[in-house]
Every structure is written in structure tokens, then in C-alpha cells.
Amino acid sequence: MQITARELYALIRDVYHQLQNNLENQLKQFDISVVQFGVIQVLSESEKTSMSELKQKIGCAPSNVTTMVQRMKRDGFVTTTKNPSDQRETFVYLTEKGKETKEKVNVQYKAFLKENFSYFGEEKFITLSEILEDYKLHLLNVEKK
Questions:
Q1: Segment 19-38, tens digit of pLDDT
Q2: pTM for this one?
Q3: Which end of the chain has fewer CB within 10 Å, C or N?
């Protein structure tokens, strides 16, 4: 059976969307979205993160990140402050509620990863990881051209 580039693209897209859907279903119990989960993960890596750094790390449009942070602030997951040395810069922090949610979500996230990747034996897992890493580098080079 021969697969076309279009079919492979559709397959990769469908796998990505199914993983996102499965994660979304797991996160419903915490009343957060996949993007909010990403924000919490990024913020848990450091004490504070600037809005511009957050935008870069989660890969969303600036207006989307601003709206997301405002919602998360309203819901008590994050707080923000202005940089005292540069008022144009805003720092985002996890609140206690955000930290507690992160701990609870991480337990569920580990279970999500185990369940969704249980299909792969160790050899297939490593092979797929290597292929995807190589392909990602190729795509980065294509983008630069």
C-alpha cells in the first residue's frame, strides 16, 4: 500500500487532534483547557514569567495569551505584576490555587501519557521519537528557506 504525502499529513493531523481531544477530556474535571494547562506548565518551571516569554513558550498569538491570562487571573490561577524597572513588561505568577491545580493535574497528566502511549513498546517508542525529532529538524530547515 502506498501512502501519499497528503494522506500522511492528514494522519499526523488526526493523531494530534485525537491526543488533544483525549487530554481535553482528562482536564475537564479541573475546569481548565488544554491551553490553560500549557500556561500552568510553563509558569511552574519558574517563579515568574514575562508575558512575552509566555507567548513564545506556548506558541499562541499575543492577543490569545493576553485573553487567556486575564481569564486565568479572574479564575484565581494566576496573578500579574508590572516589572518595576520596565512598566511595559508584565510578569505572570501562579497563585496558590494555580500551584494546587498544577499538582492535581500533573497526577492526571502522567496517567494520560501512560494510557495514550501504552500502544508503543519501548522499541517502537524510541523509533517513533527519533523519526519525529529528525522530521521536526527537517521542517525547521524547510521553514528557514
A1: 999 999 999 999 899 989 99
A2: 0.80
A3: N
